[in-house]
Amino acid sequence: MRDKVIKAILDSGKEFVSGEELSKELGISRTAVWKHINALKEEGYSIESVNKKGYRLLDSPNDLLNPQNIYHNLQTDIIGQNIIHFNKLESTNDYLKQVGNDVVEGTVAISEEQTKGKGRLGRVWESKVGDGIWMSIILKPDIMPYKAPFITLIAGASVVKALNNLGVNAQIKWPNDVIINDKKVCGILTELSAEIERINYVVLGIGMNVKNEDFDSKLKNKATSLHKEGYKLHRVDIVKEIFYQFELLYKKYLDNDKEEVLNICRDYSAILNKEIYIIRNDEKELVKCIDVNEEGNLLVKNSSGQVKEIISGEVSIRGVKGYV
Ligand code: BT5
Questions:
Q1: Mind listing the pLDDT tens digit for each residue in 34-50?
Q2: Does the bond joining 175 to the residue before it have cis omega, within 30 degrees of 0?
Q3: Distance 163 CA to ligand 1 centre (A)
Q4: Measured distance CA(185)–CA(207) in Å, rounded
Q5: Probe ligand 1: pick from 98, 124, 125, 215, max atoms within 8 Å of CB?
Q6: Which of 35, 70, 121, 250 measures 20 to 30 Å from 321, CA to CA?
């Protein structure tokens, strides 16, 4: 019922909706409407109540990750049509891996806080309460499992496109980081449940720092947030734009069209034509990045002029002077 009240208030925009109208429409008493409105105000919705006129939204609630706020005018068919919201969770990726077979494609788990947020290879992903967008999406593509790493590139391309559309100067650090001013603002973690020839599901995790004002000493030099970089965006707007861009690129990919993803990865790359270090286990090699090829792998040239293909997942990349 709370969701229906939110929807009615969101639908009426800047117009008042009377308590009586709401109570008829929803089939509940006016006192019940009033109680729901008060609870919503406590959740952070800025709702004005005026005698004889009713209720209306003062500000759009675009920083509250409540599913109803995200569903409102969402321009997708699949991604984000079913959102499961948590205040606290160990990891949205781990949660979706538990329920993966039972939820529809495009289902999203999103949490205000993760207590065991994770990166690749067991690394920790810092996910403090309210600071960011910590979410995962279930995908069920009919493709061979070995092709799944390309989904990380689709995600990177859609995040970078979404941020740039919202006015943020963001770039991709192949394969799974999105950066602003050479610091990481977003990381992507793709996990797979598959048999040899068939994918059961892919869990695509996206972590984005939005409102963090500070990072601990280990992250200070390499992490940033949108707010720290001067972009005071709201989380709901970002989430909706990512869903929209991701769905466009994902559908094209399923239709065998990878070109747009690859073009975005090239056009917004933070490392193409630059010298970088490729780090594999304890080995470090200085190379020049040349291209991202059709498979989504990185082509680099080493000091003896030899061109090599780097497969995502097997290496880390560092810049000559620092993180990029
Ligand atoms: C990643 O791994 O960048 C993937 C991060 C994916 C996080 C999302 S949040 C929703 C979903 N649920 C999860 O549990 N995970 C996903 P990797 O490339 O391995 O980078 C990890 C490294 O980034 C760490 O070792 C730190 O150095 C750094 N790091 C940790 N927290 C960070 C943060 N909040 N911002 C920037 N860098 C961070």
A1: 999 999 888 888 899 99
A2: yes
A3: 18
A4: 8
A5: 125
A6: 121
